[in-house]
TrEMBL record:
The lineage of its organism: Eukaryota, Metazoa, Chordata, Craniata, Vertebrata. Residues 26-46, 162-175 have a biased composition (Polar residues). Residues 1-46, 75-190 are annotated as: Disordered. InterPro entries: F-box-like_dom_sf, F-box_dom, LRR_dom_sf. This is F-box domain-containing protein. Residues 193-239 form the F-box domain. Gene3D superfamilies: 1.20.1280.50, Ribonuclease Inhibitor.
Amino acid sequence: MPCLCVEDGCGSETQSEVEDSRKSVTEQTDNSADGQTPPQQPSIFTLSKKEVLDPCWYCMMSLIREDLNLTQPLTQLGGEASSPPPGGKSPNYQTDPRPHFGIPNSSRSTPFPLWGSRGPRELRKGDEEEEEEEVCMSTERDLARMSLHTPSESVSSEEEQNGTLEESTESPDSSSGRHEQAADVSEWDESPASGWDLLPDVCLQHVLVWLGDRDRARASLVCRRWHRATRSPALWRSRHFHLTGRCSPGRCSEHDLAVGYARSLGAFLEELEVLVALPYRCRVTVARRLQLALRALFQGLCGSGARLRSLSVRNLQLQRDAWSRSTRNAIVHNLAHFLGHMATHLLHLSLGGSRMTLAQGLKVLKALARTQQHLNSSGGKGGGILSLDLEGFFAPSEPVHTHPPFSQLLGHFHRLEWLSLSYSCVSDELLEALGSSQQVKGRGCGSLKCLRLKCHNEEPHSQVVWEQAWASLVQRCPKLCVEFDVEGITNVDRLQRILLPRVPLVSFTMSECNFSEQDVNPKPIFRDILPHFWCQLQVLSVEIDNCYQSVDEELLELVMMCSQLDSLMLNAYLELSFVEQLLEYCQHTSCPIRSLDVKVCYLSEGESHEEVEEEKLRELLSYHSHFVHPALQLSVELYPIK
């Protein structure tokens, strides 16, 4: 059974056919009044078990699956659940008065068409009810509009004329009762106006910004003006999707919503974030479903002509066994094809956590670099990627620093200002390529301002990077700032080869470093390595397990030495005396620290010992709270270790 809605490009009946079918139903109703039993005509909502519903994409996305009593999935009802209407014509979303946000109706009331009836959401009524409602509406139109009508109370201009004519032909005796009832119904309308009906479109859009998708879909059914307000491009600039590959029965999946959003509202989209969360234990079919969803999402964005300025596809983790070989290759091919065709307006790109092989990662970067090279040769103003996040882009076992093609590809990004990489990608060739790519014509210095490096213990980090390479990069990019994130590395010699004195280090984070063994000493890190950056270090975050090695004295000397330190976060085995000396230092006007977060770990000897330590900390904070700088964000907590 074809869909009964009238939409450009929808393979359904025309308007004249729909009107002929309604006239035939009216004639059969008149025959039933004479004693004849007309045959039952199936509607779009009352279907027999043998009939198959073939709705268009708008009908399917605007109705509830349970209300239609559908036992088969949406993908079997005339193609994909989110496929656009066939017919060769693309629907005009700007003039379409019906909601098509790709969001199913959340109400569980009796389903009814959102169009083709008297009002956006109105059930068929009998003749007496229609006449009674027309009289009520004519009376309300004579009164001042004090509130916004619900969708069932909205009336078109044709109905207003018909209602006026019918009211004028009624006799006084037959219409007096109806007028009294109408007056009773509209008594609540005489209260002071709420202002929603007089709210300007600009203010209405600001209100709709704070609503969710379901509330916006309901607001679009209030009236035509509200529907136009919900179709404002400013409301659909940014979107976040969380894809897991799982499907819940009885409700529209996140994958269908993402694809429907891309096809219907992708033209308005500027910022897209896709977080892939593959379950820990999942079958190959789940990964395959997720790959198909990503392919449909990219195709929908290409078909709608999206002009993305920010794209984030994170946490693919293609090294997991749940991805088959063909599925991995399909995802890489789809991503490379999308970036090769849709990265013209892209300014920010994040592909962190993809965990691709070297060949797969180079294929994606080649497609992206080809677009950047075309923008540079064409001389387009404002074109080119500004920030690129490739942290965890390659698998942990890939020694990317030994492959020169990676450095050559990054040399095509001439407008880079922010770059995030794993330390396994860093080499002398990479630093040379980044420095040479910034020397474009008409620019005195490079544009690279921030280089963030993540050094993990499970990734290759034993390569030697010469200090002269860092000095050359800093000379070409004088505004360059380096942020280091070290995780799980306790070898002091390796850290000394990584943190060279010529590195413009402004942020250092050290996490998950276990120094519980007595032969591992963390003191040289704070005493010999980090003091080289005393004049530029701004953020220091230390999270270590040093139950056998005390670092209170070394940390305090380092903090007092750094003249630009703005944020300090410590999570280690410390003494309360260290906290007291640190608070005394924060009382001085020359202290640059404005954010202090200290988590003091200590070995607990019982509940009484814990109570004593908490009381000492309480007295310490109450005393120094009156002397520290008012702009200081202070947080000190105790963590007893049993």
